[in-house]
Amino acid sequence: WDYIRTNVSRKATELRQQGFSGAAMLPYSELEYGGIVKKMEKLEPKFKVRG
């Protein structure tokens, strides 16, 4: 298990060094799954931007 933990830790470190990626960083126009855009549009009125 020590080898596995070391390998996973190394891979996780490499991924973190690549920066942000994945669906969390996509604009709504590029999201392709599960109707997330509709869900977010429904939730949007419940939040206010404070500035």
The biggest beta sheet is recorded as: none
Structural class: mainly alpha
Query: How many β-strand stretches?
Result: 0
Overall mean pLDDT score?
82
Quick one: overall form?
elongated
> What share of residues is helical?
40-55%
Strand content: under 5%
Low-confidence stretches: none
Radius of gyration: 18 Å
Order of secondary-structure elements? HH
Oligomeric category? single chain
Number of helices: 2
Our count of domains comes out at 1
Give the termini distance in whole angstroms.
49 Å
Molecular structure report:
- There is one protein chain.
- With 51 residues, this protein is mainly alpha-helical.
- It is built from two helices and no strands.
- It has one domain.
- The termini are far apart.
Topology, pairings included?
Layout: H1 2-17, H2 36-43
Defining traits:
single chain; 51 residues; mainly alpha; 2 helices; 47% helix; elongated
